[in-house]
């Protein structure tokens, strides 16, 4: 038994028919197909917008990197070195402070117990120095036994008026 060749079924998708007819379609159909598939005016506008947005982001990033480094000159940093117990309710904290030269600075030193609870603190005013890095030995008095201490925060002391 031989099977007869059946005729090709017509496409069910009307868009496929329109695509096949676009070969001999008028200019309006060709224009709508270009708009639909991205070769028209809309795509040029989108591409232009993407370039403008990209260049703007690059310029903003370079500006941020250039200007953010200038803030480091006035930053104050404290680096803990060692805590030594000098008695049951006292100790000495040694730390380094990096600050602008000839600037009055104060720091808070906090002592902690084995549960990391605060058992004492003190505010230490550093003497004005012409050096940028200063090593400080700060006494800390506690209300209980301390096992650790750290320089919690440092700031520039504003002159009183």
TrEMBL record:
Pfam families (UniProt xref): DUF4307
Region annotation (Disordered) ranges: 1-39
Composition bias, Low complexity: 14-30
Top-level lineage group: Bacteria
The species this protein was found in: Leucobacter coleopterorum
TM segment ranges: 49-70
Name of this protein: DUF4307 domain-containing protein
UniProt keyword list: Membrane, Transmembrane, Transmembrane helix
